[in-house]
């Protein structure tokens, strides 16, 4: 008994004696006393985290550049904008707001009568560039306001043509401009009956084509510049230096005469709108 007690005293000296509850009621009382201490720990942790976040946010706001733009949240599509998808997957059309028009001054309203689109009168002078293959044109003596080239009886000559002239006269003074039979860079002139202006024996005639190379060359005339403004000068294709020239009312091809103002005027023709 003495030995056992001695050993027990030694164990008590080495390990402290534990105080255990004697009953269940005491154990429950101890649990209730320690519960408030445990419940305070989450509150303390949350408060500490909140303080840290607030301090970090304030520091970032102070260090952020003043000119930095904070992006705005993107607007979501609605039923009034393109790209809206309804419940069935169909894309709805945009619903545009009504547009309010401001009143305009009377001068802003278009005129009831539009610009005139009337065709130019027959025999009206045109620019030399209006001599184009595939068009109908008349040729007027540049220094004679009412005298036009016409074909009659197999010959070419001048005739007075006005709006009161008979239809046959007006048609005889109208030619279809064609690409040159011998050179497409030049021109040939076809009458209403299908005959061509050509030179033969120095005289300008109006004849049907015989298909020969000579006829094609005789019926081809090339436009050259001259002294009379707005006029064309027609040089023979196969007789270079020879031009269609007026001898009175008749048309011939004659050799160009330098320093002869009268001859210059008699070789000048104005391109005009067709009579026929």
From TrEMBL:
<feature type="transmembrane region" description="Helical">
    <location>
        <begin position="42"/>
        <end position="62"/>
    </location>
</feature>
<dbReference type="GO" id="GO:0046373">
    <property type="term" value="P:L-arabinose metabolic process"/>
</dbReference>
<dbReference type="InterPro" id="IPR007934">
    <property type="entry name" value="AbfB_ABD"/>
</dbReference>
<feature type="region of interest" description="Disordered">
    <location>
        <begin position="96"/>
        <end position="126"/>
    </location>
</feature>
<feature type="domain" description="Alpha-L-arabinofuranosidase B arabinose-binding">
    <location>
        <begin position="138"/>
        <end position="271"/>
    </location>
</feature>
<dbReference type="InterPro" id="IPR036195">
    <property type="entry name" value="AbfB_ABD_sf"/>
</dbReference>
<keyword id="KW-0812">Transmembrane</keyword>
<keyword id="KW-0472">Membrane</keyword>
<dbReference type="GO" id="GO:0046556">
    <property type="term" value="F:alpha-L-arabinofuranosidase activity"/>
</dbReference>
<protein>
    <recommendedName>
        <fullName>Alpha-L-arabinofuranosidase B arabinose-binding domain-containing protein</fullName>
    </recommendedName>
</protein>
<feature type="compositionally biased region" description="Low complexity">
    <location>
        <begin position="105"/>
        <end position="126"/>
    </location>
</feature>
<dbReference type="Pfam" id="PF05270">
    <property type="entry name" value="AbfB"/>
</dbReference>
<keyword id="KW-1133">Transmembrane helix</keyword>
């Amino acid at each position: 008994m003495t030995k056992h007690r001695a050993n027990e005293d030694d164990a008590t000296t080495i390990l402290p004696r534990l105080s255990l509850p004697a009953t269940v009621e005491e154990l429950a009382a101890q649990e209730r006393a320690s519960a408030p201490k445990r419940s305070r720990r989450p509150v303390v942790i949350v408060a500490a985290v909140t303080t840290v976040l607030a301090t970090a946010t304030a520091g970032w706001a102070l260090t952020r550049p003043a000119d930095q733009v904070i992006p705005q949240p993107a607007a979501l599509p609605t039923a009034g904008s393109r790209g809206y998808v309804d419940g069935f997957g169909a894309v709805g059309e945009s619903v545009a707001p009504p547009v309010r028009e401001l009143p305009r001054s009377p001068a802003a309203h278009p005129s009831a009568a539009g610009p005139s689109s009337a065709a130019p009168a027959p025999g009206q002078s045109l620019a030399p560039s209006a001599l184009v293959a595939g068009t109908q044109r008349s040729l007027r003596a540049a220094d004679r306001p009412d005298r036009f080239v016409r074909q009659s009886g197999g010959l070419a000559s001048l005739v007075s043509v006005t709006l009161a002239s008979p239809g046959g006269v007006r048609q005889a003074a109208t030619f279809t401009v064609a690409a040159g039979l011998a050179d497409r860079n030049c021109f040939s002139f076809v009458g209403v009956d299908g005959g061509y202006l050509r030179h033969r024996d120095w005289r300008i005639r109006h004849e049907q084509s015989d298909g020969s190379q000579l006829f094609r060359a005789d019926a081809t005339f090339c436009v050259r510049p001259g002294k009379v403004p707005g006029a064309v000068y027609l040089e023979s294709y196969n007789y270079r230096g020879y031009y269609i020239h007026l001898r009175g009312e008749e048309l011939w091809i004659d050799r160009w005469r330098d320093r002869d103002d009268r001859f210059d005027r008699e070789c000048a023709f104005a391109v005009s709108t067709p009579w026929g």
